[in-house]
Amino acid sequence: MPVADPIYLDNNATAPLRAEAVAAIHKAMGPPANPSSVHGFGRRARLLVEDARQSLGVLVGCRAQDVVFTSGGTEANNLALSGFSHVITSAIEHDSVLQAAPRASLLPVTGDGVVDLAALKQMVAAVPVEQRKQTIVSVMAANNETGVIQPLAEIVQIARDAGLATHSDMVQLLGKTHIDLEALGLDFASFSAHKIGGPTGVGALAVRPGQSLTSLLRGGGQEQGRRSGTENLLGITGFGAAATAAFGDVAHYREMARWRDAFEAEIGAARPDMVLFGADVPRLGNTSCLVVGDKPSETMVMALDIAGVAVSAGSACSSGKVTASHVLNAMGAGEKAAQAIRVSGGWQTRRQDFERLAQVLAGL
Amino acid sequence: MVSPPTSPPASPPASSAAPSAPMALNSLGFAKPVAETRVVVAMSGGVDSSVTAALLHEQGYEVIGITLQLYDHGVAVQAKGACCAGVDIHDARTVAARLGIPHYVLDYESRFRDQVMQDFADSYLRGETPIPCVKCNQTVKFSDLLTTARDLGADCLATGHYVQRFDTAAGPVLHRGADAGKDQSYFLFATTPDQLDYLRFPLGGLSKEETRELAHRHGLSVADKPDSQDICFVPNGRYGDVVRRLRPGAVEAGEIVHLDGTVLGTHNGIIDYTIGQRRGLGIGGRKDADEAEGPLYVVGIDPATHQVIVGPQSALACEQVHLGETSWVARDGAPLPGHAVLARLRNTAPAMPAMIESVADGGVVIRLQEPQFGIAAGQAAAIYDADDSQNLLGGGWITAAPLAALAS
Fold it and tell me: Which of A303, A317, A318 is the closest to B152 by Cβ?
């Protein structure tokens, strides 16, 4: 029997649109709105875009003018890496980094899913002096599957000491912990609206002052020549509203870490064979990556879906086919990689959502 | 006065619906409401399985669609940048979304490669002519998918095959599809009793035309989609290319030899030849011999010497067929030696009268009443009940090419 009121615990994939974003988009809809136009309609549109830029800048600790709006996290990652001939990245990155840099040097990770800093030091030291200017180190801030937070400050330090540029895919970290780009010293950072309750189809790349950036698309030179194409006004407006609302989320996720921990403790008590990934290192408060039982991931995800709980596993191809997680494989999870599920809460998630998942899992 | 014989009342008494009465079986044979019966439908993206899902959904069952990703479509059609999923998977998703049923795509690529495609290639290299569709039903669909369906708590697994399943006192039996032109029992000869217990074939009583009508009535986008003709992972019919890709270097050139020992030509690999093949042998006729024996056929393939053996049609005649890995649909369903049966040696061929000659461990030898031509090792023989030609008993894989003896 279909479940009347399913719960959603797949927010690392996408989160529901926040009421604040809906209201802002709704308000902006209707009038002609090309922010480049010289007339009053254009000026009003420009103001909306700049307000959103300001909101995002405040949330991530950079100047508004350092924010370049894109079509999403994927484009932001592609854009950041496009100016470099050599990329050093980790084996657990999102496909939009791995596919954008197919010849990249891949950093291994520990069994807990943390980038191996010793390997990074070696790899950085091996970059010939004449190649340093064309080399970028790109490591995600927090992993989408395990929630494991990477030691970004150390990574940036190691790279900068060798004169290399740095980029971080911060899509999953946004809104969940305090981000201060200026203090971090990153050259580039990628963000996506729909992970924090904004609309899909909009993201941003924050660029450190002084770093140059060439548009991937040739065209009208919008975003100060860094991203051609008329700005996605409705998307950007929604992103800005979601960013402002997300300012209050950090406390919510701190609390969620306790719900998540209680959930894991409950499952672990009933199922001593439970495997948790990244539980012993810093990770996002909203994410749990675990193995319960010996069924394939896809069977678990289907059974939970049928029982009215939406979670995920691995990464889904556009066909809907689920493939074993390259992240867990890189962590040396072996056959467990094909049995893990990912649970991820969002801005709207309540304590009882985790409790309900625990109940349903116990009943499978 | 003799009391009249008791006759049933004109209308059933109202008390027959008392709560204590056992519940009538639903159309899938379960004693529970349709809404509480969970059915996994194997959806290929074609019209048959789409209608299967639509019918069961319309009847009120809890239907879950599952589509198997069996091979990388982009690789199969050799198109760079093509999606790993072919149009069939997208069609299945669309149909499921339109019906409003849950639908999942399972990655069975490695299982399919290991259990079907590798076997397909090895079989060709052994000089056989394999039928991967039977292996796929046997392993991937009715073993792995069936396990997944059970794991999901489904009561049964339904497919769009044109075969009929009936429950009898002795257990379920499998009959040919009502539409003789669409019957798929040949491809299901290896269905085991445990599998049949769990399987349902809602289209078995329909004709293809009726299925298409139903597809139109349900507004399914696949209603006019043509039936698939080829082996799914060989979309252009060039199976030799697939074997060469799967087994690089394993295909070797060799000689085309007449039964009398004369070398008539050369070939690029035995995999390009099938027992019974007449056209495209790449050899000229033999003038003096032609009149005597007529056109030449492939009558044998020797994987050890890479020889393709040709001879007259008479050399293809075969009365005795050895079957290995036999499988029987019913529990204790194995026919006994001396038993009369009907044997279908190709999907499109009629079932021929035959007799079970002997039974050995895991195999049988059957003797055909009339000799048949072009029986190839690696093909399947489906065995039917001599008393009821609709009733599939089971079958086996044709082993020992009967002509090997003749050739040597």
Answer: A303
Q: Are residues B74 and B141 in the same domain?
A: yes
**Topology (CATH) of A7-16+249-363:** Aspartate Aminotransferase, domain 1 (3.90.1150)
Q: What is the pLDDT along chain A (364 residues), one digit of tens a residue?
A: 556 689 999 999 999 999 999 999 999 999 999 999 999 999 999 999 999 999 999 999 999 999 999 999 999 999 999 999 999 999 999 999 999 999 999 999 999 999 999 999 999 999 999 999 999 999 999 999 999 999 999 999 999 999 999 999 999 999 999 999 999 999 999 999 999 999 999 999 999 999 999 899 999 999 999 999 999 999 999 999 999 999 999 999 999 999 999 999 999 999 999 999 999 999 999 999 999 999 999 999 999 999 999 999 976 665 566 677 899 999 999 999 989 999 999 999 999 999 999 999 998 8
Residue of B83, B84, B133, B136 with catalytic role: B136
B69 to chain A: which residues are within 8 Å by CB? 319, 321
Which of A95, A295, A299, A326 is the best residue to mutate to test the B interface, defined by the most B CB atoms within 10 Å of its own CB? Answer: A299
B151–A2 CB contact, under 8 Å: no
Instruction: Provide ipTM, 2 decimals.
Output: 0.82
Is B222 inside a domain boundary?
Answer: no
User: Do residue B326 and residue B402 come from a single domain?
Assistant: yes
Q: Which fold has domain A19-246?
A: Aspartate Aminotransferase; domain 2 (3.40.640)
Q: Which three-class secondary structure string do you get for chain B? A: CCCCCCCCCCCCCHHHHCCCCCCCCCCCCCCCCHHHCEEEEECCCCHHHHHHHHHHHHCCCEEEEEEEECCCHHHHCCCCCCCCCCHHHHHHHHHHHHHCCCEEEEECHHHHHHHHHHHHHHHHHCCCCCCHHHHHHHHHHHHHHHHHHHHCCCCEEECCCCEEEEEECCEEEEEECCCCCCCCHHHHCCCCHHHHHHEECCCCCCCHHHHHHHHHHCCCCCCCCCCCCCCCCCCCCCHHHHHHHHCCCCCCCEEEEECCCCEEEEECCHHHCCCCCCCCCCCCCCHHHHHHHCCCEEEEEECCCCEEEEECHHHHCEEEEEEEEEEECCCCCCCCCCCEEEEECCCCCCCEEEEEEEEECCEEEEEEEEEECCCCCCCEEEEEECCCCCEEEEEEEECCCCCHHHHC
